[in-house]
Hints:
Order of helices and strands: EEHHEHEHEHEHEEEEHEHHHEE
Helix content: 25-40%
Number of helices: 10
Structural class: alpha/beta
Radius of gyration: 19 Å
CATH class of the largest domain: Alpha Beta
Shape: globular
CATH superfamily of the largest domain: Thiolase/Chalcone synthase
Number of domains: 2
CATH architecture of the largest domain: 3-Layer(aba) Sandwich
Largest sheet: 5 strands, mixed
Distance between the termini: 20 Å
Amino acid sequence: MTSGGNTIIRxxxxxxxxxxxxxxxxxxxxxxxxxxxxEWIRKRTGISERRIAEDDETTVxxxxxxxxxxxxxxxxxxxxxxxxxVATTTPDNTFPAVAVxxxxxxxxxxxxxxxxxAACCGFVYALSTADSMLKSGxxxxxxxxxxxxxxxxxxxxxxxxxxxxGDGAGAIILEADENGTGDNSDRGxxxxxxxxxGTLRNLLYTDGGAGTTKSAGHVVMExxxxxxxxxxxxxxxxxxxxxxxxIEASEIDWLVPHQANIRIIEATAKKLDMDMSQVVVTVDxxxxxxxxxxxxxxxxxxxxxxIKPGQLLLFEALGGxxxxxxxxxxx
Length: 331
């Protein structure tokens, strides 16, 4: 969208934040509950530990804490936020949305607040939605959060799924900047790319829901099939994003991927011919936190100084649906 002269609106990152539950569950802890081992889990997934929420650490609570952390990082307050989008598969209530509770909790008194559900790809979907709304002139600033209490969906007797997931929340504050030039040197979101294939919905799903069993159900996953499609779709989204922006893989400073499995992350990095030292990896400490994983990883790498202003970041994710997508952002 043009905004006078030849400038365009870019959605620029003003701050990031995160929250992790206080309880750490290691692979050895899980080996006492199901037939598994630390070596088996680490070899197949790269996960060593994950955080599991206690009863008082609800999705709304975690999302609110991540939001407050992002506000502090940005130097803004709740009244500066025009809209809230939360990507989650595990809301506290079927309705209202987690986002409206976060809006209230941070003192944001106006604008839209709603949830996005695209499973592990939810944050990329939410980011793209906020970017479009900012470019349309609907708002000046959006708070975008990925928050999951995925442990509530797990069958703790199913070793193929319970070892994979963890809980947490991550947030980013986007602000409309009308000084974009339209080239890849602009700060902010340069492009977003979203896909879904509903014919693959039975590869990763929950066996319940409000409209069927009247309960949330448990995660069911065809692991090998999901892995195979993830490798293909993640490679495709990388190529699509690079081509759309007319850039080479060598121009990417950091890959910030969905943290599902170290082998998928390594395969994507290989597609980019990118050294793993340029990849933000938190799956070892966080597990798969679904829609929270990218903003959690982003916050870690920003706060420890790896990601610096002006650097080019590539986000990519795949989730149940199957849904997948990517986003290119100059920090």
